[in-house]
Design brief:
Largest sheet: none
Oligomer: single chain
Structural class: mainly alpha
Keywords: Membrane, Transmembrane, Transmembrane helix
Number of domains: 1
Number of strands: 0
Distance between the termini: 39 Å
Order of helices and strands: HHHH
């Protein structure tokens, strides 16, 4: 159940990517994948590389994923900017 909380928090943080010019590696889908993967990895680190069950999750379980989602978005943006992805102007 904690993995679901981490994924949902990564998805929620990813929604704020619309406020940044789209220079993400892989576009908006790449930023989604990086935010979710980052949230799950950091969530696993906080949990001691185990996935807590239903009885042990709290609100803090979801909040622990926020730094990972932000780091994932930062990594996707840095890779995309380094590769020279121009921001899209609609």
């Amino acid at each position: 159940m904690a993995a679901l909380a981490w994924v949902m928090m990564g998805l929620a943080i990813w929604h704020f990517a619309i406020f940044i010019p789209d220079r993400f590696w892989g576009g908006i889908v790449g930023s989604l994948i990086c935010a979710i993967v980052g949230a799950v990895i950091v969530g696993l680190i906080f949990a001691g590389f185990t996935v807590p069950g239903n009885d042990t999750i709290t609100v803090m379980t979801a909040i622990e994923a926020i730094p990972g989602a932000l780091l994932g978005l930062l990594a996707a943006y840095a890779i995309g900017a380094r590769r020279g992805n121009p921001p899209l102007h609609l």
